[in-house]
Amino acid sequence: MTERRLPPHRLALIAAAVGGIALLATTLRWDWLPEYREAILGGLWLTLTLLVTTSVAGFLLAIPLGLVQVRGPRPLAWLARGFCTLIRGTPLLLQVWLLYYGLGSLFPYLPGVRQSWLWPYLTDPWPYAFLALTISFAGYEGEVMRGAFAGVPKGELEAARSLGMHPFTILRRIWLPRAVQRVLPTLNGELIIQLKATPLVATIAAVDAYAVFGRIRQETLMVYEPLLLMALIYLVLAGLITLAFGALERRWSRHSGEP
Amino acid sequence: MSVMELLALAPPGWGGALLNGLWLSLQVAGAGYLLGLVIGMAGAAGKLSGGPVIRDLLTCYTTITRAVPELVLILLLYFAVPEAINQLLATLGLGRVDIGPFASGVAVIALVQGAYATEVMRGAIRAVPVGQLEAAHSLGMTPLTVFRRITLPAMLPGALPGLSNLWLIATKDTALLAVVGFTELTLAARQAAGATKHYLLFLCAAGVLYLIVSLISNLAFKGLERRATRGMHHD
């Protein structure tokens, strides 16, 4: 069925792409792959862990960030807006370095910190990587959530209030679900942006997929192969995220009864 | 040394080095952004009125560039593409060319910006009512005149928010060139920090400079938007 829908020009393009990939697979060197298989899979695992944990933590932070900007005490709203502006106005690489080199350079001055149980964590790059990516996601998503909270129709909230719902119940049962439903279509793009941001942690010596390929490039002195495979891996990951979201959105819209 | 001495413009202060870095960042961002706009315009035109093959190829371009991390694209363009060009030149019996970090930086920013700009402009052009374009054609305007007098002014209000966002992304993406040793603002700040051991101070100073750039850009684009939407309904 699907073959019949493919127009001839697309078949030709697909054939050209397959030919190109076959050419790359046969003319370039791939004999290093078995040796580095474990390292690549390990790096990939860390990249995915970082992506999922920082996105979830960042999104949880974004909910209060968006909420207080729409209906919060003035000082809190300003603070949240300032935070979002700060995060969105500076490069993520600078934030990563600021946390790792800047904040990290202060800790040794704390008395007794070198002997405490915290010290191994404070010298490890992963907590900084997690923190930087989390606050970055929260900053961008906080702005999106602000718009989503503000965009929920007033009538729905008034109806809930007139039924005597507690403000917290309104938030839990109506305001938050409706806002999340509004941001769901944009989350796909945000997650891919977050995936593309994860290689930055390699600059503070956290060994994610990108760092593993950096090591391969140094050890094998190959120019094309590791870079091409790395690009392909990120491409496939982004494709998987899009597929997953497509399925999720179909399920979500079936439940809410909206097309 | 005090904070003021550290940030002084003349050495041994590092303020001058930071401003140099900022200037380099802005140059790369500006050149990449403008090139990206050109690519985006061509891409949008191709997606809207090109043949099926061109449309499919453009979809491949925008999908791939938007899915692969900028950091990986920078490495590809900085290491792999010059190597491929030089191998090609060598087989043709020609000499080597050197592609510096500035040119690769501009190329990467332009490539990425072009992919996003294609989508922004395609959406904005599609929002222009077909009747206006048909009216212009029926008056005998050439396609170029139609574009300049009707399409461009009519699409601008729809495209400006996206384009302003893209400019901010361009300025922030220049920081990634630090990874290939290009002394733009972020790397300049880190070098200053490493030399003086005042990490927090210099990285914060760079952050303030980026923030100033983004705030000024926001104001400028707001002004542009007001100009582009004058005479339209405001609610």
UniProtKB/TrEMBL annotation, chain A:
Transmembrane segments: 12-32, 44-68, 89-110, 227-248
Keyword terms: Amino-acid transport, Cell inner membrane, Cell membrane, Membrane, Transmembrane, Transmembrane helix, Transport
Domain of life the protein comes from: Bacteria
Source organism of the structure: Bisbaumannia pacifica
Family membership noted in the UniProt record: Belongs to the binding-protein-dependent transport system permease family. HisMQ subfamily.
Stored Pfam families: BPD_transp_1
Gene Ontology BP annotations: amino acid transport
Domain (ABC transmembrane type-1): residue spans on this chain: 44-245
NCBIfam families membership: HEQRo_perm_3TM (TIGR01726)
UniProt-recorded name of the protein: Arginine ABC transporter permease protein ArtM
CC annotations in GO: ATP-binding cassette (ABC) transporter complex
Subcellular location: Cell inner membrane; Cell membrane
InterPro entries documented for this protein: AA_ABC_transptr_permease_3TM, ArtM/GltK/GlnP/TcyL/YhdX-like, MetI-like, MetI-like_sf
Main location: membrane
Gene Ontology molecular function: transmembrane transporter activity
Lineage: Bacteria, Pseudomonadati, Pseudomonadota, Gammaproteobacteria, Oceanospirillales
Membrane topology: Multi-pass membrane protein
PANTHER family in UniProt: ARGININE ABC TRANSPORTER PERMEASE PROTEIN ARTM, MEMBRANE COMPONENT OF AMINO ACID ABC TRANSPORTER
